[in-house]
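Hi there,

I know you've been waiting on this one. I reran it after we fixed the sequence typo, so this is the corrected version. Both the input and the resulting structure follow.
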Amino acid sequence: MFEQLGAAPSLAAVDSLTTGGESEATHGLTPRELEVLRLVATGKSNREIASALVISEHTVARHVQNILTKLGVASRTAAGAFAFEHDLA
């Protein structure tokens, strides 16, 4: 059905979810955590990220901590490097 509607990218997304590929490709990060990680990788501060995403700095800090834990890295710099090395940024 997706192919008939010209929605091949959507079909790929559904396939990756059913095969677990999405989780592997994102290293267990949620879509919002990926957004935050991409901004961290560009050197943005929590305040700048909060402003860009229209969320509180506290929420950004929580996302950053979750990202560090899920990626198994100890710093924002290491998270940014991980993002670039794994094509997440």
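Quick highlight: Residues 3 and 11 are 7 Å apart (CA to CA).

Best,
R. S.
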